[in-house]
Amino acid sequence: MSARMLEITDFIDKEKWVDFVATHSEGNIFQIPEMAEVYSRAKNYSPFLLVLVDGSEVKGVMLSSTIKEDSFFGSLSSRAIVQGGPLIDEGVSRADAIRFLESYNRRISGLVMFTQARFLSSSNTEAILQQAGYHGEERLNFLINLNRPIDDVWKSIPKSRRKNIRRSEKQGVEIREMEKKEHLTVFYDLIKETYSRVKVPVADISLFEAAFDVFSPKKMARFYLAWYQGKPIASRVVLTYNGLVYDWYAGTSNEHMNLYANEALVWRVLQDAVEDGFHTFDFGGAGRPGENAGRYVFKKRFGGKEVMLRRYVKVHSPIKMRIAEAGYKVYRKIRV
């Protein structure tokens, strides 16, 4: 096998990048050029791309978002998230794949404290990540099969959850797809309110503005708002690519939790996805095994298949990482 050359994103042909991800068995929206564009437009985000090539052929793609929170953490919040990747061609030797990942580690280590690779499904690359110094952490998720009539999807949802969806409709909650960018502020405020409630930092509104501008014209993102008496009370955005609908961000008003708008939003997303011919709804993660936290319970009660995945973490700066972990615990205690 001929030697591979590692190149940074400036040297990759965009069409070949698109084709590689589209034809890869694990290809997903988080590893495409449009996602890199979204990251480049968002405050506190930057895309970082490394590719593996054999001559003119793309053999591997690793797109990460480098993130630094706009908070008192400063540089102690710096991290790289590789969502849905890395993607490496099955024909690449183990030695070349490890060399690819080790090159990424060297290049990124001065920019972030750690890298986290989040696969959307089981991957042959997992063993290679471990050899490159990454350690795995178990995470749960739920997948809903959409390759069936919508009535079958409805019947697979537990009775109690179907009852809440009906209650939401009867109480006058309306679900509308958000088509105007001017509604992004209220859309984002609901997400911000939710993240504040669970004491977790939230991405800047510019991430959602970028996603709306880049993805919506290509039908790769759908933004939804739940309305009650003329007021938005819940929001949700999903990403769509190659038959998969990915649940990305959601938020709801503290004041209107009793209207079950979240349940109604998910049901509307499922209806649209089946109508548009998508095959799978990915709930975007449900926490660690054994936690039984609110998001796990919420997602479980839509009747999807529970799956176990792993996130792989490589710490590039152990000392800063320990300081940041201690600081984050304090942040969650004092956050109101």
Structural features:
13-stranded mixed sheet; 336 residues; disordered C terminus; Aminopeptidase; alpha+beta; 13 strands; globular
Please explain how this structure is put together.
The chain folds into 2 domains: 161 residues, Aminopeptidase (3-Layer(aba) Sandwich); 132 residues, 3-Layer(aba) Sandwich (Aminopeptidase), CATH 3.40.630.30. α2 packs antiparallel against α8 and α6 crosses α9. The relative contact order is 0.16. The termini are far apart. It is built from 11 helices and 13 strands. It is globular and about 60 Å long. Strands 1, 2, 3, 4, 5, 6, 7, 8, 9, 10, 11, 12 and 13 form a 13-stranded mixed beta sheet that branches. The chain is of the alpha+beta class and 336 residues long.
CATH C-level name of the largest domain: Alpha Beta
Shape: globular
CATH H-level homologous superfamily name of the largest domain: Gcn5-related N-acetyltransferase (GNAT)
Q: What is the CATH T-level topology of the largest domain?
A: Aminopeptidase
**Alpha-carbon distance between the termini?**
57 Å
Radius of gyration: 20 Å
Mean pLDDT: 90
DSSP strand tally: 13
Per DSSP, what share of the residues sits in E-state strands of 2 or more residues? 25-35%
